[in-house]
Amino acid sequence: MLATLDDQTLAFRKDVLAGLAAPVPAIPARWLYDRRGSELFDDITRLPEYYPTRTETALLQQVMPQVAARLPAGAAVIEFGAGSATKTPILLKGIHPAAYVPVDISGDYLRASAADLQREFPNLEVIPVVADFMRKFDLPGGLDGLPRIGFFPGSTIGNFVPWSATNLLRQFRDLLGDRSKLLIGMDRLKDVDRLVAAYDDPRGVTAEFNLNLLERINRELGGDVPVDAFAHDARWNEMMSRIEMHLVATRDVTFEIDGQRFDFAAGASIHTENSHKYGPNGARLMLLAGGWTPIAEWTDRQEDFAVILAEA
Ligand code: AVI
């Protein structure tokens, strides 16, 4: 059975078995995004309580002329992630690049969204790259001589603990090179009640997104985790400046995954995601620690979300 598992499933199995056996049980957040998880995240972005997506989109729309004034025309835009049907066109329409390079590990999704963009921008050279942007990879040929602009919206940087966020920023810098620019979205610190509501919506969509991780374990790894014995929990960690998602056992449970047995007492938790929130100085310091000098910053009127332009 094991020999037939693909690399992704083997990596998932390794992370789940090691994560659940750890003294503080935790599973990396990247495993939340199978097909179902990605659909549920899409639903989350439309929830009234989940302000980041709509705030960032409106902000990009509003400030794009100012962003464009600080960026060279005819550049290559390298987006870390497959690109969003709403945010990416705002940038492409605003700055008229010569090439657009979306980078994502999910080949099917990447190719589909790249084809949509190519239809919308027939004169733009769209070059999708299937790669895990958390690891080293090469840019495609043909970008020589073009100024390079990295695009990392969505506050995805917040899902990395600061030491790995700065490593990732440094990797972007190495990839894009001297004199490149980075346009990055970061969610701001705010009232804790609003933060918690954004990650624990009354309709239970975020709960379903979190619990889907256990369903995925059962589906892909043949586990017998009693999903109904776990509850979604979103909590603010003040010391770490982050929202944490957990799955908390509501009763004593025992289950098996691939022949390995796990016992969780009522109240024990599995940590499934971090979403760090930054004040203005924290955000700028993190960029500096990652090798990027902030040169301009825009926020919405409530200062809920920031879009920062930095240069290498
Ligand atoms: C993808 N990422 C930026 C989202 C966030 O807000 O941290 C993931 C998410 N998790 C629960 N709701 C949204």
From TrEMBL:
EC category name: transferase
Spans through the membrane: none
EC number: 2.1.1.44
Keywords, alphabetical: Methyltransferase, Transferase
InterPro entries: EgtD (IPR035094), EgtD_Methyltrsf_superfamily (IPR051128), MeTrfase_dom (IPR019257), MeTrfase_EgtD-like (IPR017804), SAM-dependent_MTases_sf (IPR029063)
Gene3D superfamilies found in the cross-reference section: Vaccinia Virus protein VP39
GO molecular function terms noted in the UniProt entry: L-histidine N(alpha)-methyltransferase activity
The keyword Methyltransferase belongs to this UniProt entry's keyword annotation: yes
GO biological process: methylation
Coiled-coil segments: none
Keyword Metal-binding: no
Top-rank taxon, per record: Bacteria
UniProt domain Histidine-specific methyltransferase SAM-dependent: residue ranges: 12-311
Protein name, as recorded: L-histidine N(Alpha)-methyltransferase
